[in-house]
């Protein structure tokens, strides 16, 4: 391919040509959800982004091992290693087992991902199932002089690591500033006094008697820190160095920065070649998230049952909304924006259907098909620029409508090429599907019958009956269009 895939690497702060370590194999790790509540709109963005990346990499011929974890322990309420475990707290409130909480919301997450047409990952490891690997990495960090045990807990020694390594190279943070900032905060946080330095972070936490989730370790019963989980699981399934690590920008610090330090501190080298981060979905300019209480769950989006929503929005409307923006730009939620996307998606898919039904009408094409198809790939190769791809597909729809109206010419070979390429991009790469068609087999049958009856009425010059069928369908929200290939219909 003339223009190889370029991805923006957060580590180098520039777009780089993607060259895998061991082509055709590609290793991708994406931080999964902490399953203590239903997935929300903010969760949809990273998983749609990396779903598109996986789909495109596979189309390019790569064999992708996509690892996306489930965090089911160790994610505390405060990044400074204080407060309750989010899952344990939810379990206490509901008076159920923590793993009941995990199971309920893991199922909820999977259901939402399926509705959004996200393919499942190759491997979906749970943090609680990889305690052995985490303990081994912690012991290696202690042996290498980058961690220390105190009172049954183990902390990563940021100061020791920073002597020969750049802690902060991913996020752009300065160690001295981190220490000063953490020092100001530590007075208000319980359990910070046992750290050598306030910027140090927990690898293993001693479990107090009331703590429900606990495992034996060389330092006593406890549970893992949030950051060590991803380092251990990515190493187990992708190796000490792998191709791409993805996630939201909100994970850049401290989570991903700490992952680098742990992996490099234990293995001796940087773990990832390309760090890829999607930007946030905002509401009125503020990040959407459970911690801020301004989130809309995906089930609420699909049902319309939320005070900020004026109506329900289908999973494909949500997917198309997210793909309207390049993944590194912010995307602000709004009912009007989603309503516009909903209408746009209907027109878009109608246009793709028109293209699929076209027949060649000339010996040569009156426009450059190869150039148009090349523009699809140029958009994707430029850091997954889905809005540009969608714009080029809209141009394809415009040309399809001109051909259908007899205002543009296309030969059989060019038409087949364009139909295959557009279908590939819409359904296989962008992952869109026609929800109307997916659940509309019975409606298709009824409409075929009605249009046949209408055509017979027109043939018999019974225009009153023909118009009546059309008008009654319009009143029911179904538009009938007459064309050279016969009548077509769409739900308004």
Q: Mind explaining what this structure looks like?
A:
The protein is α/β, with parallel strands linked by helices and 492 residues long. The chain has three domains: 6-278, HUPs (Rossmann fold); 286-436, Isoleucyl-tRNA Synthetase, Domain 1, CATH 1.10.730; 440-491. Helix content is 47%, strand content 16%. The protein is built from 17 helices and 17 strands. The protein has a four-stranded parallel β-sheet with strand order 4-3-11-12, sandwiched between helices. It has a four-stranded antiparallel β-sheet with strand order 7-8-9-10. It has a three-stranded mixed β-sheet with strand order 14-13-15. Helix 8 links the parallel strand 11 and strand 12 (272-278). It starts with 5 loop residues before the first strand and ends with a strand.
What's the CATH C level of the largest domain? Alpha Beta
Molecular shape = elongated
Quickly give the structural class: alpha/beta
Number of strands: 17
Which architecture of the largest domain does the CATH hierarchy give at level 2? 3-Layer(aba) Sandwich
Taken together, the total number of domains comes to 3
Give the number of helices. Answer: 17
* Amount of helix: 40-55%
Strand order of the largest sheet: 4-3-11-12
The pLDDT mean sits at 91
- The CATH topology of the largest domain corresponds to Rossmann fold
Round the Cα radius of gyration to an integer and report it.
27 Å
Would you identify the CATH H-level superfamily of the largest domain?
Answer: HUPs
Largest beta-sheet characterization: 4 strands, parallel
Strand content: 15-25%
What is the terminal-to-terminal distance?
Answer: 40 Å
Low-confidence residue ranges: none
